C-alpha cells in the first residue's frame, strides 16, 4: 500500500472520524477500493486509572475509566490469511501471515500478531485484513495505548466485529497476548478497561474474583484531566518486574509458600505489621503500599457513591504519597505535576496514573477550574522541569466496538 495520502497530517482527527479513516483506506488499498461495502472501522479506548496502582497483579482492586482517546482501525477483511496494517501517522506498513506469525519484530506490529496468537490459542477464529490505523492516544504514556492496540486488533482480526466471546474473556485474551507474546508481564486492568469501558462510569474490578461494577461519574460539574509529564519512562520494564517480584517475595514471607503462590490480597495491615521485623525494609514498604492501596480503592468507591469528594481527594493524595515514598514509582516530574495541581483552587485530587516512572497524572477537577489548572501547569511545569507538558481533558467512554 503506497499513496501520497500518507503520512496523514492529522492522524488524531482521523482517529475520531470513522468515515474519514474509511476513506483513507479506500484511497490507499486496492482490496478496499474493490470492495468498498466491506470496509469497517473499529475503535478501542485508552484508560486512566483513578486509584489502585500496581494492585492488579497482586489480585487486589482497581478503578479505571476508559477514556475518549483511543485507537481506530479501518479495515477490509480478506480471505488470504494475511494481515497488512498501515500507520496513518507515518505511512509505515507492516504485516504477517496468520498461519505463520514468524519471529517477533520488536515493533508495533508485534501487538497485532500477539493478539492473533492469543485469539487462536483461545480457539477463536481470526481473519486476514488490509487496514489503516489512526490514534489520538499518546503512546507509552501510561494511558494504555498497548491495550487499546490489542483490543482494536482483536476486532480487526475478527472481520471488524467483537470476537465470539464475552468482553471479560476478550480482556483476558488481550492480556495473554501482552504477557505471552510481547513479553510484558502486565496485570488485567488495562485490557479490562479498554474492553468493558462504559460512558459516564468508572469500573471497579476485583482482580481475583473478576467481579466488577460500574461506578457512576455522572456529576456534570466534575472533569477528569490527564496531565502528561512529557518525560521519557526510564528503566520502566525492569523496575516494573522488580516491583512484581518484591510483592511476590512479601506475600511469600508473610503467608508462606513459594513466591508467586501467595498474594498480597490476603495480607491485612495487622498481618503486615506483625511480620515487619522479619521483612527486608524495602520489601515491607512495597507491601505496605499494596495493602493500603487496596483499602483506598474501596474507600474511594464508597466516597464517590456518597458524593464525598473531599474524601476522594484525600485518598488521591494519600495514594500519590504512597507511590512516591513506599512503592517508589513516581518521578520528580510527576511529583511536580501533582504539587502544581494541588495548589489550584477547584482541583479535588491529583495522583500519578499507570505504572509510573513517567507518563501522566490524573486530576479530578471542578469543571470551572479546568482553565486554571491548564494555565498553572503550562506556566509552572516547564519552569520547574524544562519539559513541555500536555493537559488532556478526558471523558469516561465505551469499550472496544465497531464504529462504522
Ligand atoms: P502504554 O500502554 O502506557 O501506552 P506501552 O509501552 O505499554 O505504553 O505500549 C506502547 C507501545 O504500543 C508502543 O511502543 C507501540 O509499539 C504500540 N502503540 C501504541 N499506540 C500506537 C500507535 N498509535 N501506532 C503504533 N504503535 C502503537
Ligand atoms: Mg501498556
Question: Which class of the largest domain in CATH terms?
Answer: Alpha Beta
How do the SSEs run, as a string of H and E?
Answer: HHHEEEEEHEHHHEEEHHHHHEEHEE
Calculate the mean pLDDT score and round it.
96
| CATH domain fold name of the largest domain | Ribosomal Protein S5, domain 2
Oligomer: single chain
Number of helices: 13
Roughly how much helix do the residues carry, as a percent range?
Answer: 40-55%
Give the strand order, joined by hyphens, for the main sheet.
5-4-6-3-1-13
Number of structural domains: 2
Low-confidence stretches: none
Strand content: 15-25%
- Report, as a whole number of angstroms, the end-to-end distance: 22 Å
For the secondary structure, the number of strands is: 13
The distinct bound ligands, ions and cofactors come out as: adenosine-5'-diphosphate, magnesium ion
Largest sheet at a glance? 6 strands, mixed
Shape: globular
Radius of gyration: 21 Å
What would you note in describing this structure?
The chain has 404 residues and is α+β, with helices and mostly antiparallel strands. 41% of the residues lie in helices and 21% in strands. The protein folds into two domains: 11-47 and 62-215 and 398-402, Ribosomal Protein S5, domain 2 (2-Layer Sandwich); 219-394, Alpha-Beta Plaits (2-Layer Sandwich), CATH 3.30.70.890. The protein has 13 helices and 13 strands. The strands form three sheets. It has a six-stranded mixed sheet, with helices on both faces. The chain has a four-stranded antiparallel sheet with strand order 10-11-9-12. β10 (347-353) and β11 form a beta hairpin. The model has no long low-confidence stretch (mean pLDDT 96). Adenosine-5'-diphosphate binds next to α5. Magnesium ion (MG) binds next to α5.
Amino acid at each position: 500500500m503506497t499513496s501520497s495520502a500518507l503520512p496523514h497530517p492529522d492522524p488524531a482527527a482521523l482517529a475520531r472520524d470513522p468515515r474519514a479513516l474509511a476513506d483513507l483506506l479506500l484511497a490507499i488499498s486496492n482490496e478496499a477500493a474493490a470492495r468498498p461495502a466491506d470496509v469497517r472501522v473499529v475503535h478501542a479506548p485508552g484508560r486512566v486509572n483513578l486509584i489502585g496502582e500496581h494492585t492488579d497483579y497482586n489480585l487486589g482492586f482497581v478503578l479505571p475509566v476508559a477514556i475518549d482517546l483511543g485507537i481506530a482501525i479501518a479495515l477490509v477483511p480478506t480471505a488470504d490469511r494475511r494481515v497488512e496494517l498501515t500507520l496513518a501517522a507515518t505511512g509505515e506498513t507492516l504485516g504477517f501471515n496468520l498461519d505463520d506469525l514468524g519471529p517477533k519484530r520488536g515493533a508495533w506490529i508485534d501487538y497485532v500478531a500477539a493478539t492473533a496468537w492469543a485469539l487462536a490459542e483461545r480457539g477463536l477464529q481470526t481473519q486476514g485484513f488490509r487496514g489503516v490505523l489512526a490514534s489520538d492516544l499518546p503512546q507509552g504514556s501510561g494511558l494504555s495505548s498497548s491495550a487499546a492496540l490489542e483490543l482494536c486488533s482483536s476486532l480487526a482480526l475478527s472481520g471488524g466485529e467483537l470476537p465470539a466471546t464475552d468482553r471479560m474473556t476478550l480482556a483476558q485474551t488481550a492480556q495473554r497476548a501482552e504477557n505471552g507474546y510481547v513479553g510484558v508481564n502486565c496485570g488485567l486492568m488495562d485490557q479490562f478497561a479498554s474492553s468493558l469501558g462504559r460512558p459516564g462510569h468508572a469500573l471497579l474490578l476485583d482482580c481475583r474474583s473478576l467481579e466488577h461494577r460500574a461506578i457512576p461519574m455522572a456529576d456534570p460539574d466534575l472533569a477528569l484531566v490527564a496531565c502528561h509529564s512529557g518525560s521519557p519512562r526510564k528503566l520502566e520494564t525492569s523496575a516494573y518486574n522488580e516491583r512484581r517480584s518484591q510483592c511476590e517475595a512479601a506475600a511469600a514471607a508473610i503467608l508462606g509458600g513459594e513466591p508467586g503462590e501467595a498474594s498480597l490480597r490476603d495480607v491485612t495491615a495487622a498481618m503486615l505489621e506483625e511480620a515487619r521485623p522479619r521483612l527486608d525494609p524495602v520489601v515491607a514498604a512495597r507491601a505496605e503500599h499494596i495493602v493500603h492501596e487496596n483499602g483506598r480503592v474501596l474507600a474511594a468507591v464508597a466516597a464517590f457513591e456518597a458524593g464525598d469528594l473531599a474524601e476522594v481527594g484525600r485518598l488521591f493524595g494519600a495514594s500519590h504519597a504512597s507511590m512516591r515514598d513506599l512503592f517508589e514509582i513516581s518521578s520528580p516530574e510527576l511529583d511536580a505535576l501533582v504539587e502544581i495541581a494541588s495548589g489550584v483552587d477547584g482541583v479535588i485530587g491529583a495522583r500519578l496514573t499507570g505504572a509510573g516512572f513517567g507518563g501522566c497524572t490524573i486530576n479530578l477537577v471542578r469543571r470551572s477550574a479546568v482553565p486554571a489548572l491548564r494555565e498553572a501547569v503550562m506556566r509552572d511545569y516547564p519552569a520547574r522541569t524544562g519539559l513541555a507538558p500536555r493537559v488532556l481533558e478526558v471523558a469516561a467512554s465505551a469499550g472496544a466496538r465497531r464504529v462504522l
